[in-house]
Structure formats: C-alpha cells, structure tokens
C-alpha cells in the first residue's frame, strides 16, 4: 500500500486574472495528521475546495490514492471524507437518522455495524437518538466527523474544525482526531488559525503564503528534511558557568550566549552525551539540559515575515 495518500503537484489556480494558488506542491502521508497553515487569504480554503472537487484548477494535478481528481473524480472522492466550514446536518433529525441518511446516499454499502463502530469512536452513542438541534456545537462537529468517516475514507479533510468550540470542546476534538489517526490509520488534513492547537495535534505542518509553498516542519522542532545529527540549540543550567567555558576550551563546542547560570550552545544531537560526560568529569553540577525548539508560532512568523493568520 502506498504510504502517500494525497499528492498535490504544481497546482495553479487563477480567479479573474489573479493567481490564488501558484505552483503549489505537497503530499500527505498515510496515518499522519497534517496541519495546513497560512495567513488570511493565503489560499488554504481554495486548495481544500480543489482537493474535494468543488473547484477546478488551471494547471497541475491532485492525486488521491492514485486517482486524479479531474480525470477520475468519482474514484478519488471515494477515498475522501471532508468537512469544509461547518458539517451539513439535518437538525430536525436525530443523530442516528442523520447517519442512516448519509449512509444511504454514499456510493458504498455501509453496514449498521460500521455506523455503530464510528459512533462509538466519536463517543456519541449516548446521544445518538437525540435530535441534532439539541446537540452542543462540539457534538455536532463529532457527528459531522462520524458522517465523513462512514465510507472508510483514506483522508479526512477539515477546514477550521474548531470554530466556535470552547477550550474543552477543542481538546475533545483534538483527542478524537489523534485516536482516529491511530485506530483507523486515516490521514487527516487540518486547516486552522489556532497555532497552539495545530502544534499539539499535528505530526507535520505546511505553511503557504500568497498561494505559494513557504515551508514544512516536523513537529519535533525540525524542518522537513533536516537530520537529527545537524546542529541544535541546547540550554544548560549549571552551578559554575565560568568553569564550563574553561572546560569547553579544549573541545569543538563553545558558548553562544549566557544569562546567569544558563548557557546556550550549538551542537549535534549525538554530541550531547559527550558534552555532559566532559562537564561531569570536571565536577560541574548540571541542573538542566534542554533542547531549545522554536515554537510553531516562531516558525510561522519567521516563514511568513510576520504574516497574520487571522
């Protein structure tokens, strides 16, 4: 089975002579939660609409599970579950009636067992026979996700899924999505303006600006393609900063900056235990050794030169 579920290849979209998406390329791996970020007007929703077949493109390709969205749309869409903006639900019907209705409308045969399985996964089994108009916003989002998952899609696409949710609802949704990626081995693409949530939820993020690729980041602090052996910022808290600098004179390492008893160094991941051993051998007391990772907010502002996301 191919590990890449979605490929966006050199996609360009123009509206009224204005280029909205410009030669954009990226891919989403199987089973990962992939964040999709960019300032207001960057082209996120336009890209999502092209991915789900709601908008045409001027050039390029979108491939989902090996099927071209333009030339083989029906087969491509069989692998997609999506909520663009708000889930489309019938509020006068119960949750069960909604799911049964959408199951009948899908192009696949969906068993009652599958409905029960998804309802349990999003923890709506106790509310399934209540009318949707009585659901909280978070419950409606979870019902919408259940509806999008009925046909076993390979990728779930969510555009601003946390809109209107309170902190508890946002956390619940994050936990459900993490569980989905593990238990269903489903890829999830999430577009959101909440950088802190994306950082907690996603495995990898893409940042675009003015319709163009700006960069990707793995959410362990590395840029896409960066190796663990490359130089990293390390902060030490010690009892004798001056002695540390003396010890480092005969090593390839040096102090980049210091503040009180906290020292910043730049070294590779594999050199960290060597540094610790050298300091301990000289009776330097180490209170903390910490890798300093830029936050997603830092990365976003750096990549977009301060571009606003709201």
Which key features would you list for this structure?
310 residues; alpha/beta; 6-stranded mixed sheet; 10 helices; 31% helix
Q: How would you sum up the global shape?
A: elongated
CA radius of gyration: 24 Å
Give the N-terminus to C-terminus distance in angstroms. Answer: 38 Å
Written as H for each helix and E for each strand, in order along the chain, the element string is: EEEHEEHEHHHEHEHEEEHEEHEH
Tell me the major beta sheet.
Answer: 6 strands, mixed
Kindly estimate the percentage of residues that lie in beta strands according to DSSP: 25-35%
Going by helix content, strand content and strand pairing, the class is alpha/beta
Regions with pLDDT < 50 over 5+ consecutive residues? Answer: 225-229
**Arithmetic mean pLDDT:** 84
Give the helix proportion (percent range).
25-40%
The total of beta strands comes to 14
The total count of helices amounts to 10
Strand order within the widest beta sheet: 6-7-8-3-9-10
């Amino acid at each position: 089975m191919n590990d890449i579920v979605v490929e966006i290849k050199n996609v360009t979209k123009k509206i009224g002579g204005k280029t909205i998406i410009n030669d954009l390329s990226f891919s989403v791996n199987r089973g990962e939660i992939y964040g999709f970020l960019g300032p207001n007007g960057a082209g996120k929703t336009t890209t999502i609409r092209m991915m789900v077949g709601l908008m045409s493109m001027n050039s390029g390709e979108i491939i989902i599970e090996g099927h071209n969205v333009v030339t083989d749309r029906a087969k491509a869409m069989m692998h997609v579950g999506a909520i663009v903006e708000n889930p489309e639900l019938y509020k006068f019907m119960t949750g069960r009636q909604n799911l049964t209705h959408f199951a009948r409308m899908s192009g696949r045969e969906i068993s009652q067992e599958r409905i029960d399985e998804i309802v349990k996964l999003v923890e709506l089994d106790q509310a399934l026979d209540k009318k949707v108009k009585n659901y909280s916003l978070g419950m409606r989002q979870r019902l919408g996700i259940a509806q999008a998952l009925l046909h076993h899609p390979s990728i779930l696409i969510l555009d601003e899924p946390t809109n209107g949710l309170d902190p508890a609802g946002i956390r619940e949704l994050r936990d459900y999505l993490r569980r989905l990626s593990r238990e269903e081995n489903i890829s999830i693409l999430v577009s959101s303006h909440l950088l802190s949530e994306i950082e907690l939820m996603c495995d990898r993020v893409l940042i675009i600006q003015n319709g163009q690729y700006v960069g990707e980041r793995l959410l362990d602090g590395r840029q896409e393609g960066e190796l663990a052996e490359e130089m990293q910022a390390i902060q030490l808290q010690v009892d004798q900063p001056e002695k540390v600098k003396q010890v480092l004179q005969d090593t390839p390492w040096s102090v980049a900056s210091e503040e009180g008893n906290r020292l910043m160094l730049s070294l590779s991941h594999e050199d960290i235990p060597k540094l610790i051993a050298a300091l301990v051998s000289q009776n330097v007391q180490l209170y903390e050794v910490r890798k300093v990772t830029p936050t997603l907010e830092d990365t976003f502002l750096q990549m977009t030169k301060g571009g606003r996301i709201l």
